[in-house]
């Protein structure tokens, strides 16, 4: 497997990681590539010309452009009765059931495809599948189901045989995910699962900043398209 099959986009909060993977998704659609996954969007409340962040939603990447969404987290209310029942990340309560209702079927569908090669070869004529996850971070990892499926997906990508190893032509699968940037003096993120996948030899880290974020969209798209013929 080429290192380019696991692409991890990082950068400081607000630098444009979600925007980047959203643009890559659109470019892949234009090229007839099957891409699935989700992105994380802010939920804001507007009043008197001002706005305040209420939390985050996850939004499905959808070729039909209906973009289903589900709540990921909301700011903790002083009167909230959910505090004792939901995990907390900073000032937010993570709504695991809501998050899982969208994220888990999405990930499971990819894994099911990988386990049913004959079906996938009929459905994906270009033999390339791209899974886009925005993001693999503290909130999302509150879900043990999500964590397990990401681990299973990465393992599946790592263990896919090359075309010369068997008679069945396996698809090429690319994982494009955003991850938090390193914040500790030792260069880690303080999120063991994320630090572990970032240190994998199969993973390629793509760090974006203001100077390179626009051109990186095309670079990432071309990198994924090259996997199609590898």
From TrEMBL:
| This protein's UniProt keywords | ATP-binding, Hydrolase, Nucleotide-binding
A single Gene Ontology molecular function, please?
ribonucleoside triphosphate phosphatase activity
Keyword hit for Hydrolase: yes
Q: Name one Pfam family in it.
A: NTPase_1
Protein name, as recorded: AAA+ ATPase domain-containing protein
């Amino acid at each position: 497997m080429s290192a380019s099959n696991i692409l991890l986009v990082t950068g400081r909060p607000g630098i444009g990681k979600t925007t980047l993977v959203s643009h890559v998704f659109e470019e892949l659609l234009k090229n007839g590539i099957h891409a699935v996954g989700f992105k994380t969007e802010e939920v804001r409340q507007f009043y008197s010309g001002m706005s305040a962040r209420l939390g985050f939603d996850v939004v499905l990447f959808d070729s039909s452009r209906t973009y289903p969404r589900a709540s990921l987290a909301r700011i903790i209310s002083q009167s909230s009765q959910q505090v004792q029942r939901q995990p907390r990340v900073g000032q937010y309560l993570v709504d695991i059931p809501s998050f899982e209702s969208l994220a888990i079927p999405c990930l499971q569908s990819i894994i099911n495809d990988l386990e049913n090669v004959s079906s996938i070869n009929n459905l994906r004529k270009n033999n390339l599948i791209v899974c886009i996850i925005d993001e693999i971070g503290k909130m999302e990892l509150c879900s043990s189901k999500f964590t397990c499926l990401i681990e299973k997906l990465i393992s599946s990508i790592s263990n896919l045989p090359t075309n010369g190893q068997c008679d069945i032509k396996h698809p090429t699968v690319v994982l494009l995910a955003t991850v938090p940037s390193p914040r500790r003096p030792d260069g880690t993120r303080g999120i063991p699962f994320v630090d572990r996948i970032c240190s994998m030899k199969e993973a390629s880290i793509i760090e974006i900043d203001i100077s390179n974020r626009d051109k990186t969209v095309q670079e990432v798209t071309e990198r994924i398209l090259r996997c199609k013929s590898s």
